[in-house]
Amino acid sequence: VLTKGFRAARLRLRGEAEITDANVDAALRDLRRALLEGDVALDVAKRFLARVKEEALGQVVRLKAGKGDDEVRVTAGDHFTRICQEQLTALMGAGETDLALETTKKGPAVLLLVGLQGSGKTTTAAKLARNLKKEGRKPLLVAADVYRPAAIDQLAVLGERIDIPVYREEGEDAVKICKRGVAAATKEGRDVVILDTAGRLVVDEPLMRELDKIAKATRPSETLLVCDAMIGQEAVTTATAFHDRLSLTGAVLTKLDGDARGGAALSIREATGVPIKLVGMGEGLDRLEPFRPEALASRILG
Amino acid sequence: LLGRRKIDEALLEELETLLISSDLGVDTTLDILDTVRERASRNELADASAIRELIRDHLTTTLEGVEAPLTLAAEPGPAILIVIGVNGSGKTTTIGKLAFRLVRDGKGVVIAAADTYRAAAAEQLVVWGERAECTVVRKEAGADPAAVVFDALAQAKKEGADVVIIDTAGRLHTETNLMEELAKIARVASRQVPDAPHEVLLVLDATTGQNAVQQAELFHRYTGLTGLVLTKLDGTAKGGIVVGITHRLKVPVKLIGIGEGVEDLRDFDAGAFIDALMS
Ligand SMILES: Nc1nc2c(ncn2[C@@H]2O[C@H](COP(=O)(O)OP(=O)(O)OP(=O)(O)O)[C@@H](O)[C@H]2O)c(=O)[nH]1
Ligand SMILES: Nc1nc2c(ncn2[C@@H]2O[C@H](COP(=O)(O)OP(=O)(O)OP(=O)(O)O)[C@@H](O)[C@H]2O)c(=O)[nH]1
Ligand SMILES: [Mg+2]
Ligand SMILES: [Mg+2]
Q1: Which-ligand-closest: CA of B86?
Q2: Tens-binned pLDDT, residue by residue, of chain A (302 aa)
């Protein structure tokens, strides 16, 4: 079995005393393979490699000039590994995993969940509601997916499981349902509203417009992209499209309990600046956790 | 992109971008580029359009080489199709579309709602059964999926149905107990009808990245795959993951999903797929 990817980079530099112009390019090619196999978008990977190269060679220069006393003298392999891990972690995390949940004079905080079909929005909506309830909040779930068969039933069943009310209507106007859901929450003293919307393609203009209208009507304090951790090269196109339309405040990466490397975490953050706030770690409603960049960094590197 | 340009490193880099961005993966992309470089070095490629042909042929060989139609009849019947895959890939929707097509083509279909786990899974399938105008056999939430299969086969016998399609709960291939549950469902089918299951279809979301390779390998190991279904091809994703999977496991893509409506199902057409991939 050929050693490829990140392990190959480490092995390649193992015999070397330090990172040099000569050996860094070969190590970067190994790193590149690791990132692409980990589903980091190609352009994102290229920009990241440039950063790593600059940082690696820059640190060596500083060490030689005696100015790198905070950079411990280690072998080239360990040095390269540490730089990769640090750069990835720094890029992906700035500790912004908190949700904006303040109620206003106008009413409850509104969280809007959006994303592609099947990414985990409905499940994540229920998980969020459950966590907020545990923190002493009074959430209301709003079933705004009027297209998918039994989508409303699905959210209603989940709501029942965690004893959280679900606002639903028989109608087919998602925008009205969201508006009236927020009004109902205000009236009933619910202090945070979670809007579960239908999955949609970014190329479906009418459905993207529907989201524009929902956002305009409900003024969410959080607009979260719910994204499957196993998504491939389309992560940037997808995140960029939603972000350009809605100004995303965060992303949730779901199904991270599998073995997908989750390169989308880097792609989304690097290409749009949107922070990953939460990760889905299972189908159970207690399986939603704050995003931890260091953990995802080593996972992406493989 | 690929007209009458001469072949140089810049062109190869553009090609690499095209192939990687289509989720073909590093290994498949490198295989293709190595072949291109080797042929170019022997002056066997006149220009960029010759490269396009080479890549088309390479992909066509892989995808058409294992092509096989869907098994929709069995003697004795019914033909049993089990639909499997990770969470949210499009299994339930695909079954609804397939049932609709088969009923319209005059076949008797029974659907087994063997996802007894996820909230409102059976309810979702019941709606599709109404659209397709066929029986959906279900049990209460939490029931043993194998029991649903058993009941569905009994119903199929009663109706003289030609085809039974079994919907299963989404599951990550890394969950061993869930994978063994799937193997058990297949065994139950095989004991009821000779040669069953006649199809074991892995449903893959076209937006999936390289994890699709692990998905295919594990599902294949536990149940044996007879075909792939690639869904959500109406989006921006090219679904290049199927190339490497087909190459390694020799399992053909049989169907594609191109939307959420009842008629948004097509037989796999390698030529059209490759055209879209290379565009
Ligand atoms: N293993 C695992 N499964 C998950 C996770 N989140 C959601 N799922 C499963 O993924 C599938 C899809 O979840 P949904 O919540 O229905 O996804 P959705 O985005 O609402 O789907 P649409 O409304 O059709 O767009 C279901 O089987 C969920 O149980 C997760 O973190 N881990
Ligand atoms: N655009 C598009 N959406 C699709 C396609 N196939 C399925 N979907 C959507 O993807 C989402 C998930 O589909 P399901 O059929 O519930 O997927 P599943 O694999 O049964 O999900 P679980 O049972 O939860 O594992 C739904 O919103 C479907 O409408 C397709 O070909 N194109
Ligand atoms: Mg949903
Ligand atoms: Mg399903």
Answers
A1: 2
A2: 456 788 899 888 888 888 998 899 999 999 999 999 999 999 999 999 999 999 999 988 888 887 765 555 678 888 999 999 999 999 998 668 899 999 988 899 999 999 999 999 999 999 999 999 999 999 999 999 999 999 999 999 999 999 999 999 998 999 999 999 999 999 999 999 999 999 999 999 999 999 999 999 999 999 999 999 999 999 999 999 999 999 999 999 999 999 999 999 999 999 999 999 999 999 999 999 999 999 999 999 98
Choose the residue to mutate in A148, A194, A256, A283 for probing ligand 1, maximizing ligand atoms within 8 Å of C-beta.
A283
Q: Is the dihedral of CA B150, B153, B158, B159 positive or negative?
A: positive
| Structure tokens that stand for B137 in this block | 């056999």
Distance CA B237, CA B206 (A): 6
Hey, is the C-beta of B224 within 8 angstroms of any chain A C-beta?
Answer: no
List the shell of residues around ion ligand 4, using CB closer than 5 Å: B 91-92
Amino acid, res. B117: Y
B176 and chain A: CB distance < 8 Å anywhere? no
Q: What angle do CA B174, B177, B181 make, to 5 degrees?
A: 115
DSSP-derived pairing of the beta strands A222-228 and A250-254 = parallel
Beta-bridge partner residues of A146: none
CA-to-CA distance for A128 and A285, rounded, in angstroms? 8
B78 prior amide bond cis, ω within 30: yes
The alpha helices in A76-173, defined as continuous H runs, are: 76-92, 121-134, 151-161
Q: Are B52 and B275 in contact (CB under 8 A)?
A: no
Residue of B18, B28, B87 to mutate when probing chain A, most A C-beta within 10 A: B87
Cα separation, B68 vs B198, whole angstroms: 13
